[in-house]
Amino acid sequence: MAREMIKIEKLNKSFGDLQVLKNIDMTIHESDVVCLVGSSGSGKSTLLRCINYLEKKNSGKIIIEGEQIETSTHNINEVRQKIGMVFQHFNLFPHMTVLENVIEAPVHVKKVSKDTAKKEAMALLRKVGLEDKADVYPSKLSGGQKQRVAIARALAMKPDIMLFDEPTSALDPELVGEVLLTMKELAEEGMTMIIVTHEMSFAREVADWIFFMHEGNILERGTPEQIFDNPKEERTREFFSSQF
Amino acid sequence: MLFRLPSFSHFFNTLIDTRGVFFDAMILTLQLTIVSILIGIIIGLVVALLKISRIKILGYLSDAYIYLVRGTPLIVQIFILYFGFSGIFLIPDFWAASLALAFHNGAYIAEIFRGTIQSIDRGQMEAGRSLGMTRGLAMRRIIFPQALRRALPPLGNQFIIGLKDSSLAAFISLNELFNVATTLGSNNFDEMNYLLIVAVYYLILVAIPTLGLRALEKKMSISDQ
Prior knowledge:
heterodimer, A: alpha/beta, 9 helices, 37% helix, B: 225 residues, mainly alpha, globular
């Protein structure tokens, strides 16, 4: 069995009176690609954001690469360097060029030399097919290009895990494909990935595991075949019948 | 006293004849404004940072300062600071006026900075943090550069307001534009004429930041596309 990259035990999270995550348990192994699916408000994004502490959990254990992470004992900034994140709205830095976006964290967080960072950034931009946009500002890019830059920016920190929070939800339909293709290539290289998505055909094709979330619980989990073709739960069946 | 509109030739001749003394006064007004805005920017930056800091007491202190400045007339602040300062230690009039104006501008500039910092999308901070940046580093590298850009138009506006407010330094006998105009006006029994002249000088001074702001906004709207 591959090593455990993320293990979550009895995770609870509330916003005020609203309990968004209820006793979540999950384990993700190296090179796993996990798609979190479910209707909006089911807690998918919150679960993802708890993993790198963008949301603070109320209780429970979050274990990253074998180490239980607590804000009291760990430097969260160091933990986050191992966990790349891609956002629905890209969140590129608009005052920096594409290349500057990608080298920003390696240079200022990891203290990599600018030359090295630039070389590595250009290789990443080549990988996502945007080498020719290195000196362009994000405002000149399409949504799909922006998201591919955001992926390159996250990869520049050489993370062990990548989190994707609805990476194609803000894109025009014709731009979704290029982003999914980039993600698929990343999955094939063996990156451990957790993806919150509504792209069911992508999830079926790329995911090793599908977690179906409903009202703060992971209601059902299994391979894409199990979940899509033979869901055990009535809720899961209802959800997928509304999707296709 | 009765103010009568001067004839145009009289106005124009006086404008030419007094250009030397008004030019000096204009320089002083400009110095007062620039110095008080620059110090105001430093005060404003510090106060804005205190206000958004997570230490509550610092936030309350900033609130108190801003309330004090916004809640009292500028002329009262100038008098208090001027007579207050000169009572404690000797300070040249220019610096007393500059500091009083800076104290005043600082509160408004703090609100400008706070507003623009908070106007930056939350996702920018999150993106920085997700890359492993500390809050401070993300502020410095990601938030401030964007906030400063957005602050430039309101800062230009504050400069124009500060320029005109500097006329109140006349009341602590600094020979800036307004003081020169009222002194010459009453000495020559020609108040209205000199008030019109000084208005021309203010309009000239205000034209510089106004045109600068317009160019800046044009440039920003192009780069935002």
